């Protein structure tokens, strides 16, 4: 029953599944005999896949119901990130944990949980090791990094704090000339998000040519960059 | 130890918090949408509120991204909220076998990068439709209304709903390009 004549304006609503059953049957019957409509409809149906990427909640407007507690919480987080009150970062503690990181690295490279107790230095860092620290004012992430020279490459120890749990990250070694190299990648666990994380990696960059070490999320957001 | 020098290479910035206004305005405009979405995905209002706060925080951190983004701001925010929820769920799923913080997750496992682009670009494309066309599309597709219901809601004739939906779909199709291509 090809009762619908060639009326392309129905194809949009048909493709969206919005016609009533009678009209839908009629359009279906017409389309089955009309190559032109079939071609156009095929394109419209593909479009539904794109439309499905957008959740229906995307079309709600305004603030949430139920007061501004949520907003206040968000602003508190923003302020906390903007002015991080970091404890336990006195230079003495920093030095102790850097040395500890080096000891772990030299001891075979097995990662262990973050130590908080200062430990006597086991071995000095190799000569020529460059140590630097940086905090990104926007993300609040902090990294202390040691770049140890090797023959034509570098060993990198990094301690990272302030990257939120759930972030998928890469440790990048950026040479003065050339593309950044990935020295490691990981996802930040809840514990690491709260307490920080120690990483080790290597990169095929001449020791004197490291420009910076960075933490970048796998979707390209830079959490922190420390110039070397 | 002589070779160890701890250097603070970056001074921390002053205590003012620029961008608070951005967070407020995003909340006023998009808060309901974000919260409803997060509640549906998490099934938990408290968790959803936390996700929305984290989303607003990230928007504040990445204000440049937000401004330069070719898709819509709403799409960016919804995508970030979903990524937070997905990543948290994965972190929970992984944790039982996770003894230490090992470096073991290849970047390639991040599988929602394409959807990220799509959600933002589709919404961006919809924003470029005429308001009349966009409204018809939203009612028919996203609110699941019939042609007659949409006609009643928008105060137009059912025939107008049909023709507008046709033109809306065509315009969107033209904007988004061929399927399979990731629109940029």
Architecture overview:
- In chain A, a hairpin with a 5-residue loop joins strand 4 (168-175) and strand 5.
- Chain A has helices at residues 9-15, 21-31, 35-51, 69-82, 91-106, 190-195, and strands at 130-135, 142-149, 154-161, 168-175, 181-187, 197-203, 210-217, 222-227.
- Chain A starts with 8 loop residues before the first helix and ends with a strand.
- Chain A has a 4-stranded antiparallel sheet.
- Chain A has 6 helices and 8 strands.
- Among the domains of chain A are: 9-59, Orthogonal Bundle (Arc Repressor Mutant, subunit A); 124-227, Sandwich (Immunoglobulin-like).
- Chain B is mainly alpha-helical.
- Chain B folds into 2 domains: 20-93, Rna Polymerase Sigma Factor, Chain: A (Orthogonal Bundle), CATH 1.10.1740; 128-184, Winged helix-like DNA-binding domain superfamily/Winged helix DNA-binding domain (Arc Repressor Mutant, subunit A, Orthogonal Bundle).
- Helix content of chain B is 66%, strand content 0%.
- Chain B has 8 helices and no strands.
- Chain B starts with 19 loop residues before the first helix and ends in an 8-residue tail after the last helix.
- The chains are: A alpha+beta (228), B mainly alpha (184).
- The interface between A and B is large, with 97 and 96 residues.
């Amino acid at each position: 029953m090809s009762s619908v004549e060639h009326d392309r304006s129905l194809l949009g609503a048909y493709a969206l599944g919005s016609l009533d059953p009678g009209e839908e049957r009629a359009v279906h019957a017409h389309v089955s005999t009309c190559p032109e409509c079939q071609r156009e409809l095929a394109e419209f149906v593909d479009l539904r896949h794109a439309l499905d990427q957008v959740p229906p909640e995307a079309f709600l407007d305004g603030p949430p119901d139920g007061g501004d507690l949520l907003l206040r919480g968000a602003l508190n987080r923003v302020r906390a990130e903007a002015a991080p009150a970091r404890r336990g970062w006195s230079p003495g503690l920093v030095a102790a944990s850097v040395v500890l990181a080096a000891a772990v690295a030299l001891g075979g490279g097995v990662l262990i949980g973050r130590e908080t107790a200062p430990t006597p230095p086991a071995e000095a860092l190799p000569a020529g090791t460059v140590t630097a620290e940086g905090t990104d004012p926007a993300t609040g992430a902090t990294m202390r990094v040691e770049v140890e020279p090797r023959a034509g490459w570098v060993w990198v120890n990094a301690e990272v704090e302030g990257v939120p749990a759930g972030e998928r990250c890469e440790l990048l070694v950026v040479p003065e000339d050339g593309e950044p190299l990935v020295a490691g990648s990981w996802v930040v666990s809840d514990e690491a998000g709260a307490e920080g994380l120690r990483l080790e990696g290597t990169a095929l960059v001449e020791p004197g040519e490291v420009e910076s070490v960075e933490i970048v999320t796998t979707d390209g957001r830079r959490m922190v960059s420390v110039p070397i | 130890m002589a070779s160890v020098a701890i250097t603070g290479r970056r001074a921390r910035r002053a205590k003012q918090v620029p961008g608070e206004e951005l967070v407020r305005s995003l909340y006023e405009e998009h808060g309901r949408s974000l919260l409803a979405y997060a509640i549906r995905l998490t099934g938990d209002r408290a968790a959803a509120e936390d996700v929305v706060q984290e989303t607003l925080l990230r928007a504040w951190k990445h204000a440049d991204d937000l401004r330069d983004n070719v898709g819509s701001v709403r799409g960016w925010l919804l995508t970030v909220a979903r990524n937070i929820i997905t990543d948290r769920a994965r972190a929970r799923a992984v944790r039982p076998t996770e003894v230490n913080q090992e470096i073991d997750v290849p970047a390639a496992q991040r599988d929602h990068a394409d959807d990220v682009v799509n959600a933002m670009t589709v919404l961006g494309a919809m924003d470029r439709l005429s308001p009349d066309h966009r409204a018809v599309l939203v009612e028919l597709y996203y609110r699941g209304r019939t042609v007659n219901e949409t006609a009643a809601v928008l105060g137009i004739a059912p025939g107008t709903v049909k023709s507008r939906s046709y033109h809306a779909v065509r315009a969107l199709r033209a904007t988004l390009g061929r399927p399979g291509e990731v629109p940029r």
